[in-house]
Amino acid sequence: MERPSGGGAKGWTVPPSADIVSRMASLVRHVTIDCADAYRLGGFWAEALDSTLHEDDKPGDPEALVAATGITLLFVTVPEAKTVKNRVHLDLQPQDRTRDEEVERILALGATLVADQRRPDGTGWVTLADIEGNEFCVERSAAERAA
Question: Among the CATH numbers 3.10.180.10, 3.40.50.300, 3.20.20.370, 3.40.30.10, which is that of 7-81?
Answer without folding.
Answer: 3.10.180.10
